Structure formats: structure tokens, C-alpha cells
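Sequence, please.
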């Protein structure tokens, strides 16, 4: 036998043209192909499959713009010297947006709830045409169908079915008012989605076997108690999966990488006559599946190593769903990938070899990001804008430019960070900053007023001890110029203000430890400057914070309790303590207070034009602050949340921590205990995803004292009884 192989050489691609489209320009098509790594390679063999992928990408983009009948044809024109010219003939087709969506069959729930599950195709939403919510594509519909199916499965309809959409062209007659009232026909699409919910099933009981109960009690030291089942509680596959993973987490061993990983199986038993479900939980006696291969699909701009380093699940180790979820959440928090859904993860089990192949589909957002955030600075609320670029230099580095400011402060930062430095779990960063603080105390206080500007460099190093714990070291070199003004020139009876300018340099070294599990956050940090580090400042700083959020077990599981305790301290161990090292805090810790009211009041002397020395009160700041907050949070729709709160805090200015120069403190105001209670509403602004807070606080414990200054004068420092306030960013 003779075997002959015949090869047809492809000509070299010499030129590519795009013609016929009124919606996509040449530059837009080139950018589209570049982002999807489909740009044709001139001077290379013309691959028919690559040309087909280019045509498919252009047609898909036109479909997403509301042109479902768009077409792209490939015209090959052979040239001399074995070269080829390719022209893509693009036909946009008519604009046919989705006008109506109907649900056919027995859905079991209201049409309003079904519409709420559709996120991609939703022509009823505001600005649907500008947000491409009225364009029909098969992939967009598949995502919406999956959401509808999951909603029914998790609300008592385990036998629900959602079919393919039937697409039909329709014409709607609408009344237009410009340039004169008239009726006009609009062409579009009608989507008919067949939905059959099936019978409604309720959860009757949860029955863990004896082996599972004994294993959980031996592992945790106490038995596992299940909540009482409501007879009308709908059966939910999502809740079953959460319960199974919760029991598996209770059995989790620290030696899971050595093969001692125990899992729990959940077996729902359906009763078609009673339409009820009995859930049996069993301890799986079989050894866990070993991960044979992990594959990531959809990576174009990021390499495989960047993704694998963030997922603590390795090939050759037991299949751990918890570790996979933790890694995917960590990957989603980077902001470079779209939210990873369950359908994007495929796990193929090989019962013969007892192995598992994991395939994860990722959708990249891009290497460049512009993000907004809001928060609370030392003086007032701030709004920030950050621009980040990842892997610009092909070394997996992160470049950041950040601008954050408010009425009384401004912060500028340029930085570069590198994760996995020297092949370890540590990350190293270098940043240049410039901070300006200009507080304006306008509430009955007369000087001193402090203006300061700090500029310098910071080099932080962070090492991830575990998935939830990290340790960091930070070195900062800065220079600060501060102006302290005594008195104001607003009154003709007073002398011009007196300015004191100081220049200080600081070299500090700090450490920090962070424990963050999502619902629990603990932070301890400290720093020291001066001594062998150099600089004019000899200061010690320390702070700590712990916050815990957990679901309400009594009233509603969607509500949550939140608690926070915090302290901050700053002092000089040699020499003078700079005024900007003090804390002028207010509603950052106790809502209802103005900036500086958490600390004590001092008397500042100034001279009038006649030479008379006059004393006036001023906020002295604090060098030790403690506070505690308690909140009950009730979430609503569209990013709105209502909160009832109780805040408690106090601020001290300890003279021994200030150095030789000490202010004339009113001791009755030092360490005053402040407490407030009230209601807060928080709304997450769409688009920029920055929370906006508005609250009313009643100061149940406040400063309200009459202090005799001399035989003939009295001073009455006091805080407001109640106050409205607002802020950007979450309090904690």
C-alpha cells in the first residue's frame, strides 16, 4: 500500500479590508479584533479558520447593537506572488430591538419576578437602548434563561423547565410628539419564552445520619443543631448546597492537603404525592477525588500563572470546593474579570481513576480600570478616583494613579506594586504621595487653624500568611510643612492673625497584621519614627480595629448585625509632638459630632489691637481615641440599606505624650464620653459603586458643661443634641 499526502499551501495574507458597515468604523473593528486577539497577521499564511473567527466576532458585535440579521461575507482575491487580499463585506441589516417579552405556560410565580431575573435582555429598564438591554443574542438569552431556571429551582420548583425563546418580528405603533403629534410604526422583536414550573415542593425535614453527627461533634467539640423547618418553606437546591458545604466546612481538617478531607453528601428524597422533600445528609466514606488538571479558558491579556497563584487548589491534591470558591472570590476582587458564575465552572469526574478535571471559563474586563470610591479622611468626607494599569511592562506589575479629596483635604498618589515578589507569597510596592490638609472649624471655634502639606515616598511589603491573614512592613520617608494660625482676621477688633510655620522630616517604620474572612476583620498596626531611622520627628503610633458582621438568627436572615471596636494612639517619646499628629475626629467614630468634637477643648490666647490678651476656645485634638459601634442593617432593593445604630466613643489628649509644649486644656472636657443613637440610610450609587450615607443622630451622651474661667466669666462648651449628617463610603 502506498499512502499519498496532498498539501495545499495557503497564500500569504497581504491586505485586509472591511466594507459595508455604517455602524462599525475601521478603527472600531481593528480595536475589537485587537481586544479579542483576532487581528489578522499580514505576511502570514491566510488561515481560513482565523478569517471565519474574525467574521463571527464582527457579526456578534452587530447582534449586540440590535441588528440580529447582520451578515459578514469573506471575499478572497488571489494576488501575484502567492499572496491574498481579503475583503469582509459587512451588511448591518435592519435595526430590530426587542420590544416585548412574554412568558408562556404555567410559570408558578408572577411575571414581575421572572422579568427581574432577566439582566441581559430587559427592554423595560431605564435607558435600555443605551445600555444594550434591548438587543437579542443567543448567548445573552442563555444567561437570562439560566437565571430564570435557577430562580425557580431555588423557590420550590425543582421540576421547572425553561425552553428556547421563539423570536418573531412585530411592528408597534407609537405616538411621537416631535416635530408634531403623529403615529409611527417601529419594527422590533417579540420574545416568547416557554416556562413550566411544575408542582410546588416544600422542605419537610433535614435528617443527618448518626455518623455525620458524631464526626461533627468530635471535630468541633459540640453537636450540630439544625434550625426548625417551617412547613411552608420552599425547597431550594441552592440552600441544600449551602447546607452541604456548611457541614463540610465543619469537618474541614487543617491537613486537607494530605488527603484527610471529608465531604458530606446531600440526598433529597421527593414525595410526588405530598409534594414534599426529605433531605438526608450522609458522611461520604469514599476518599476525595484528586485534581488531575485545572484549565482556564478565555485568557487573552492575563497569563495562566497570574490566575493559578490566586486559587489555592493545586493539581494532585484533593478536590476542595471551599478552596476553589475562595480562590475565585479572590480572583473576582481584582476587578479584571467579570463575575464568575456556577455555569462557568465544569468539573468532570473520572470514577475509574478517582480524579477530577476542573475547567473554568473566565471573561476578562481589561487591564485598565477607572474606579471611584468614597470614604472618611481626618477632616470630612472624600471622593476618590483611581486609574490602574496591570501588566503594562509584562512583569505582572500594577501601576496606580489616585486622586482623593474633599473640602478640607487632598491626596495624590502614584504607585507601582508587584505580587509574588521573588517567587514568594509576598508583594512589594513603591509609591509617591502628596497630601494637603486644610481643616476649617466653623462652629464657634477661634483658632488655632492648622494647614499642613506632606510629600514623600512609601515602600510597603505584604506577605500572605494564610488565605485570611497577612503581615506587612512599611517604610515611609516624608517631609511636612505646617502653618498654624492663631486668631482670624474677620473682626476689626482683633489683631491680624499670627502664623507659625514649621518644617519637619519623618522617617518611619511600621508593621501591620490583618485578618479578614469577609464577615470578620481584625487589624493591628504600629509605627515608629526618629531615633536610628533619622528625621526630626520622634513619634510612636499604634492602632487597632476589629469588626464582625453576622446574619440575624432571630428575625430575618437577610438582615445583619454589625459591630466594631477601634482605638488609635499617638505620642512623642523625645522632643516636640507635631500638631498634625493629633486626631481631630467626629462622626467617623460617633455620628452626630462635628470634626474635632470627640477630643477636648483648649484655651488659646491672642492679643487685640489695644494690647489686651483674650482667651478663646479651640479644638485641641486627641492623641488617644477609643470607640465602639453597633448596627442593625436591613437591606432593600436597588442598593438601598436602612440601619439603626448606637455609637460610643471618647478622646483624650494626654500631656505626657506631647513633649515640652503643652496646650492649656480644659480638663473637664478631656476624656468626655460621647454616645449617639439614630437611623441611617445608605445608597450605593450606580455606576461608580460608592455608598452615600445620610443619617440622623441623637446625642444621648454629650459635652454640655459650664466651666468657670475666672471670677466673672464662664465658658459653656456643648455639643448638639441632635444632628443630620452625611458621608461617602461605608463607616465600616
Amino acid at each position: 500500500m502506498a499512502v499519498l499526502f496532498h498539501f495545499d499551501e495557503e497564500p500569504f495574507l497581504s491586505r485586509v479590508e472591511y466594507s459595508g458597515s455604517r455602524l462599525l468604523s475601521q478603527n472600531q473593528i481593528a480595536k475589537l479584533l485587537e481586544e479579542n486577539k483576532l487581528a489578522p497577521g499580514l505576511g502570514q499564511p491566510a488561515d481560513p479558520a482565523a478569517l471565519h473567527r474574525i467574521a463571527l466576532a464582527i457579526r456578534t458585535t452587530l447582534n449586540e447593537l440590535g441588528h440580529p440579521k447582520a451578515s459578514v461575507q469573506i471575499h478572497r482575491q488571489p494576488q501575484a506572488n502567492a499572496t491574498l487580499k481579503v475583503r469582509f463585506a459587512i451588511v448591518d441589516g435592519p435595526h430590530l430591538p426587542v420590544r416585548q417579552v412574554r412568558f408562556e405556560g404555567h410559570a408558578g410565580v408572577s411575571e414581575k419576578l421572572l422579568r427581574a431575573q432577566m439582566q441581559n435582555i430587559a427592554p423595560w429598564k431605564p435607558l435600555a437602548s443605551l445600555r444594550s438591554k434591548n438587543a437579542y443574542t443567543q448567548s445573552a438569552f442563555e444567561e437570562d434563561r439560566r437565571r430564570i431556571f435557577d430562580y425557580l429551582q431555588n423557590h420550590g420548583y425543582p421540576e421547572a423547565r425553561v425552553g428556547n425563546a421563539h423570536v418573531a418580528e412585530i411592528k408597534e405603533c407609537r405616538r411621537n410628539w416631535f416635530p408634531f403629534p403623529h403615529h409611527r410604526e417601529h419594527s422590533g422583536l417579540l420574545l416568547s419564552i416557554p416556562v413550566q414550573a411544575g408542582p410546588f415542593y416544600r422542605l419537610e425535614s433535614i435528617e443527618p445520619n448518626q455518623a455525620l453527627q458524631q464526626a461533627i461533634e468530635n471535630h468541633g467539640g459540640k453537636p450540630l443543631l439544625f434550625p426548625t423547618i417551617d412547613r411552608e418553606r420552599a425547597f431550594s437546591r441552592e440552600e441544600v448546597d449551602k447546607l452541604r458545604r456548611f457541614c463540610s466546612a465543619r469537618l474541614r481538617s487543617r491537613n486537607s492537603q494530605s488527603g484527610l478531607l471529608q465531604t458530606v453528601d446531600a440526598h433529597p428524597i421527593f414525595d410526588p404525592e405530598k409534594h414534599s422533600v426529605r433531605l438526608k445528609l450522609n458522611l461520604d466514606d469514599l476518599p476525595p477525588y484528586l485534581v488531575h488538571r485545572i484549565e482556564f479558558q478565555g485568557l487573552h491579556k492575563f497569563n495562566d500563572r497570574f490566575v493559578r497563584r490566586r486559587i489555592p487548589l493545586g493539581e494532585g491534591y484533593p478536590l476542595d470546593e471551599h478552596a476553589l470558591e475562595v480562590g475565585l472570590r479572590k480572583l473576582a476582587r481584582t476587578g479584571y474579570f467579570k463575575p464568575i458564575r456556577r455555569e462557568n465552572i465544569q468539573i468532570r469526574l473520572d470514577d475509574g481513576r478517582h480524579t477530577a478535571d476542573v475547567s473554568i471559563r473566565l471573561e476578562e474586563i481589561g487591564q485598565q480600570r477607572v474606579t471611584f470610591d468614597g470614604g472618611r479622611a481626618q477632616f470630612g468626607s472624600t471622593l476618590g478616583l483611581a486609574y490602574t494599569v496591570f501588566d503594562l511592562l509584562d512583569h505582572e506589575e500594577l501601576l496606580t494613579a489616585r486622586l482623593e479629596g474633599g473640602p478640607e483635604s487632598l491626596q495624590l498618589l502614584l504607585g507601582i506594586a508587584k505580587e509574588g515578589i521573588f517567587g514568594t507569597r509576598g508583594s512589594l510596592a513603591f509609591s509617591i504621595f502628596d497630601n494637603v490638609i486644610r481643616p476649617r472649624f466653623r462652629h464657634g471655634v477661634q483658632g488655632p487653624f492648622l494647614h499642613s502639606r506632606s510629600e514623600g515616598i512609601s515602600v510597603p511589603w505584604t506577605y500572605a500568611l494564610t488565605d485570611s491573614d497577612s503581615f506587612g512592613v512599611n517604610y515611609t520617608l516624608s517631609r511636612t510643612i505646617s502653618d498654624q494660625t492663631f486668631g482670624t482676621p474677620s473682626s476689626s477688633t482683633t489683631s491680624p492673625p499670627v502664623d507659625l510655620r514649621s518644617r519637619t522630616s519623618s522617617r518611619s517604620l511600621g508593621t501591620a497584621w490583618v485578618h479578614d474572612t469577609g464577615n470578620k476583620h481584625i487589624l493591628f498596626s504600629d509605627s515608629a519614627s526618629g531615633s536610628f531611622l533619622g528625621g526630626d520627628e520622634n513619634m510612636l503610633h499604634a492602632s487597632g480595629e476589629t469588626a464582625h458582621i453576622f446574619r440575624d438568627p432571630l428575625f430575618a436572615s437577610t438582615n445583619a448585625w454589625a459591630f466594631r471596636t477601634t482605638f488609635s494612639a499617638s505620642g512623642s517619646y523625645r522632643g516636640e509632638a507635631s500638631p498634625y499628629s493629633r486626631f481631630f475626629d467626629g462622626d467617623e467614630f460617633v455620628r452626630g459630632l462635628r470634626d474635632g468634637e470627640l477630643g477636648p477643648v483648649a484655651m488659646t490666647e491672642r492679643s487685640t489691637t489695644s494690647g489686651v490678651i483674650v482667651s478663646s476656645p479651640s479644638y485641641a485634638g486627641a492623641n488617644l481615641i477609643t470607640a465602639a459601634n453597633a448596627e442593625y442593617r436591613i437591606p432593600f432593593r436597588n442598593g438601598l440599606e436602612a440601619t439603626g445604630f448606637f455609637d460610643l466613643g471618647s478622646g483624650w489628649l494626654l500631656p505626657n505624650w506631647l513633649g515640652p509644649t503643652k496646650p492649656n486644656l480644659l480638663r473637664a472636657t478631656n476624656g468626655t464620653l460621647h454616645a449617639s443613637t439614630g437611623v441611617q440610610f445608605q445608597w450605593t450609587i450606580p455606576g461608580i459603586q460608592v455608598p452615600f450615607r445620610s443619617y440622623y443622630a441623637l446625642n444621648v451622651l454629650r459635652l454640655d458643661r459650664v466651666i468657670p474661667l475666672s471670677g466673672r466669666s464662664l465658658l459653656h462648651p456643648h455639643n448638639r443634641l441632635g444632628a443630620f449628617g452625611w458621608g461617602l463610603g461605608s463607616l465600616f
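The first helix runs from residue 26 to 35.
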